[in-house]
Amino acid sequence: MLVKKPADIQPSEITPESVYRRRREFLRTGATLLGGGALLPGLALAQQGDALKAAAPADLARTPPAPWWEGKFAAIEPAPSSEPFFTSEALTPYRDVIRYNNFYEFGMNKSDPSNRSGDFRVDPWSVEIAGEVARPGRYHLEDILKPHALEERVYRLRCVEAWSMVIPWIGFPLADLIKRFEPTGNARYVEFETVVQRDSMPGVRSPFSIIDWPYREGLRIDEAMNELSFLAVGLYGSYLPAQNGAPIRLVVPWKYGFKSIKSIVRIHFRKTQPNTSWNDLQANEYGFYANVNPEVHHPRWRQDTERRLPQNLFSRRVIPTRLFNGYGEQVAHLYQGMDLARHY
Ligand code: MTE
């Protein structure tokens, strides 16, 4: 977030979201095609015709992180057609979603996560559940995901750097996972931690690294239990690319993007508010709550407007920013009586 670079959009590039949209339409019209099959190369694409196949980006046709993922993606519930789990705003093209990223473990430029994450390993993957819960332990990701049906949610993502995207995620509600591990009455906060893979993460090895790894984030337990809080394992119908937080990441769409921590290996239920990476680094710039708020400005970025990506020389696509990123109906009650300028 310390470095800002304009998007480098090539208008001539294929926009895979059209492929995705047609798949989505296909699914919604009740075709017999398996929901998840739509995302697995060959099966769905073959059924939808060669034109579609030709237009499919290579990234969507990659092999799953492990064989069991195919089964997991074999049935995905499409997003409903209305807010808050869906928005009819134009989707950000796939290529921008996977090439314009913040993932400081791979470097500080927007293109670093996609260019420098080739050695990142997601198999095997486990997640430790710790702290104030009845069932702590280290769980293989397959066991973490097993009971959860995957669904799609189309959310706005608003970065504190004042750019935004609209992304179709695949995943499941964070609340469902939390309930399974039975937090105790003392669990007032949930802390999340990202993996540290020194050998595959150039940003972690860098002498210029500004973050004290691992990257950490946190939510109040009632925020974590909110219906919008989502654990994503995919986007645009396919597995999460490394640069977007493979194999599992948080998505909290009413908060600035830095709360949506990637590549999670630890979920810790705590009595007290956890330390979080950006807040530790610069508390006067990055608050613990980090709710999208057009009236509370960051010292370097005004927050009342945002640049909806992609943009180019001819179209900057600046739009007004909404309180809670437009999700006030679902989350405003969480902050009743709080001074949002103080608890930014
Ligand atoms: N998670 C980790 N582990 N490391 C990071 O650097 N960056 C955050 C968030 N999650 C970050 C992270 C920021 S600043 C943003 S805006 C979003 O990821 C960006 O998500 P995206 O790259 O998938 O758009």
Summarize the model shown.
By secondary structure, the chain is α+β, with helices and mostly antiparallel strands. The chain is 20% helix and 20% strand. The protein has helices at 16-28, 43-47, 50-55, 68-72, 94-99, 112-115, 141-145, 174-181, 202-205, 221-224, 277-281, 328-331, and strands spanning 76-77, 126-131, 137-140, 150-158, 163-173, 189-194, 216-220, 230-235, 238-239, 249-251, 264-270, 305-308, 318-320.
Describe the structure.
The protein has 344 residues and is α+β, with helices and mostly antiparallel strands. Helices cover 20% and strands 20% of the residues. The strands form two sheets. Strands 1, 4, 5, 8, 9, 10, 12 and 13 form an eight-stranded mixed β-sheet that branches. Strand 2 (126-131) and strand 3 (137-140) form a beta hairpin. It is globular. The model is unreliable at 3-15 and 26-56 (pLDDT under 50). Ligand MTE binds at residues 1, 101-105, 157, 159, 194, 215, 244-245, 257-258, 260-263.
